[in-house]
């Protein structure tokens, strides 16, 4: 069993720990039982300035380090992450409230995969430019250059994974980074900084500051910052993107979603139910890509709901380090109240039919009753105008919507300002591809849900974001392009010649 508390977290920059000058702290809380885990020191403006200055000093050398040398350092960090997978995952479980069966098999693993992917990419020439012969005596060549000092704002649902999704391409491309984790799940940041240092990352290349939105706002608006990468809710992301764009900074925004999952009439029932459950209840529903609007053919609705009810019994809340537990609490008290308010609204105002769950907490051992638990909840007979159908809840709340024709389902699926993810379950793959082409979302799945391997570029459409993370395209968000035309003709074409 892991320890119940951790040393005070200080800031990390210029390759070592520093006490914050603000004199302020906040607590990291174990969501499963509402007990404190650690005191976290809040960065003052002067501390953020110091962290950015350290990153700025380190940029000149790191950006000039050959890509293959950068790759070797990052590959050492990958090995350390994998070696310490369970140790890191235990801290992630305590900090985030996710079951250890999840954090030990997904969070650190997928983060390390992404770091390895980008280390291999740049080490194998992935930052090489292109050469084009314009004519016999003229060539164009391109080069990719790092952006400079970058800022990354992490999210609380996948703490170390998102930290690696951002730092991996950033550092591989030759940038330096100042990272602010979410104030709700901050414990991973120092661990990652120490792993990077042990792997040989030079001082100042990766830095950590702590705090809430005001710290993030000062960091991202700082004139030295060249690029901002943010993961979080849509309203905050719009503010961050607006501030960054107004100062000509590069941005990547991975924001929220209200994603449709369309089940076609020929879909295998068990697969459809399993997919819908994974798209709603994995990570206690705290996944931005979750398929919370489940479109079911009217002819299939009764059978789908019956099988769903049978399988809901397999959701097992409980002690987070128990191998049988597959459902944890929500991340914080404030978020638990938010999700509960949506469930209450669905029952009392939207008047949706409560098929399973509802208000209150699931049955958990007495020592966990103070935790931020909610019941996995399913609403049916939903309509498109209901608040629980229109707004992102970010919790374990499924809305079932019936439809008559596929064309109707696609049209309704697209009636949202968000466009993060979408998916289709069917045996007819030709039809699936045609439907996917019509769905207005940046991340789509056919007969599966949720997997985002390092090789797969992911990003939202509409209000769900700007740019992509991961995949070959992901590195492009961390570099700028330079094109050069070389003319070897020996003469200059000119209109300013004697007639």
Automatic annotation (TrEMBL):
Say if the entry is tagged with keyword NAD. Answer: yes
- Tell me which residues this entry annotates as catalytic: 254
Enzyme Commission designation? 1.2.1.3
Reactions performed catalytically: an aldehyde + NAD(+) + H2O = a carboxylate + NADH + 2 H(+)
Q: Which residues form the Aldehyde dehydrogenase domain?
A: 18-483
GO molecular function term, any single one: metal ion binding
Cross-referenced Pfam families = Aldedh
- PANTHER family per the UniProt record, alphabetical: ALDEHYDE DEHYDROGENASE-RELATED
User: What family does the database annotate?
Assistant: Belongs to the aldehyde dehydrogenase family.
| Protein name (record) | aldehyde dehydrogenase (NAD(+))
Source organism per UniProt:
Aspergillus heteromorphus CBS 117.55
């Amino acid at each position: 069993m892991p320890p119940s508390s951790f040393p005070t977290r200080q800031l990390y920059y210029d390759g070592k720990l520093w006490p914050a000058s603000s004199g302020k702290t906040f607590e990291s809380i174990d969501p499963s039982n509402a007990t404190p885990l650690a005191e976290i020191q809040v960065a003052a403006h002067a501390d953020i300035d110091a962290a950015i200055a350290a990153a700025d000093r380190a940029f000149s050398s790191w950006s000039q380090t050959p890509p293959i040398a950068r790759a070797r350092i990052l590959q050492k960090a990958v090995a350390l992450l994998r070696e310490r997978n369970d140790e890191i995952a235990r801290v992630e479980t305590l900090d985030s409230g996710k079951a250890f069966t999840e954090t030990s098999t997904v969070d650190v693993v997928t983060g390390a995969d992404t770091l390895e992917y980008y280390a291999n990419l740049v080490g194998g020439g992935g930052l090489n430019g292109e050469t084009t012969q314009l004519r016999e005596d003229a060539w164009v060549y391109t080069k990719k250059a790092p952006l400079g000092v970058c800022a990354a704002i992490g999210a609380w649902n996948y703490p170390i994974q998102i930290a690696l999704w951002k730092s991996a391409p950033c550092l591989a491309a030759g940038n330096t980074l100042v990272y602010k984790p979410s104030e709700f799940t901050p414990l991973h940041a120092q661990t990652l900084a120490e792993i990077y240092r042990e792997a040989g990352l030079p001082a100042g290349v990766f830095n950590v500051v702590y705090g809430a939105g005001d710290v993030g706002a000062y960091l991202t608006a700082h004139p030295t910052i060249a690029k901002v990468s943010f993961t979080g809710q849509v309203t905050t992301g719009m503010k961050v993107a607006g501030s960054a764009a107004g100062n000509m900074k590069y941005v990547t925004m991975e924001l929220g979603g209200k994603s449709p999952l369309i089940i076609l009439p020929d879909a295998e029932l068990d697969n459809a139910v399993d997919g819908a459950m994974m798209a709603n209840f994995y990570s206690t529903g705290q996944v931005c890509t979750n398929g919370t609007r489940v479109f079911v053919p009217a002819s299939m609705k009764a059978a789908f709901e019956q099988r769903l009810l049978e399988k809901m019994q397999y959701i097992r809340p409980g002690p987070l380090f128990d191998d049988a537990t597959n459902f944890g609490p929500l991340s914080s008290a404030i978020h638990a109240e938010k999700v509960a308010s949506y469930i209450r609204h669905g029952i009392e105002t939207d008047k949706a039919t409560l098929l399973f769950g509802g208000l209150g907490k699931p049955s958990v051992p007495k020592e966990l009753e103070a935790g931020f638990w909610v019941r996995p909840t399913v609403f049916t007979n939903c309509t498109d105008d209901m608040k629980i159908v229109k707004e992102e809840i970010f919790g374990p709340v499924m809305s079932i919507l019936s439809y008559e024709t596929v064309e109707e389902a696609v049209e309704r699926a697209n009636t949202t300002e968000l466009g993060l993810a979408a998916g289709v379950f069917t045996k007819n793959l030709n039809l699936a591809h045609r439907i996917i082409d019509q769905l207005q979302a940046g991340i789509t799945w056919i007969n599966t849900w949720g997997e985002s391997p390092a090789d797969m570029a992911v990003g939202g459409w509409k209000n769900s974001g700007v740019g992509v993370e991961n995949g070959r395209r992901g590195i492009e968000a961390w570099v700028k392009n330079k094109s050069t035309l070389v003319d070897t003709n020996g003469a200059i074409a000119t209109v300013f010649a004697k007639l």
